[in-house]
Amino acid sequence: MMKTVGFTSRIVVSIAVPLALMIFWIVWFFFYAEGFNFYQNLAIFIVSVLVIGGILGGMWAPWGMKHGKKFEEMCEEKED
User: Which of 28, 40, 67, 77 could be bridged to 36 by S-S, CB 3.0 to 4.6 A?
Assistant: First the structure.
């Protein structure tokens, strides 16, 4: 699986993007959140999670559609 084109880079991005999100949350909630009420901060939190989900989903979906059949066949061979 690791030899499949684009898999390793997607794994690296899948680790780096949530890490960047956590850094954003730390900076936001310690330095910028005071000027906003609870619901505005909650909205920032939810929107940031949705953006990260969109980035990761948009990155993995085309790869999965392209290579999914190959991995499905590999799993069927292992079960036999």
Answer: 40
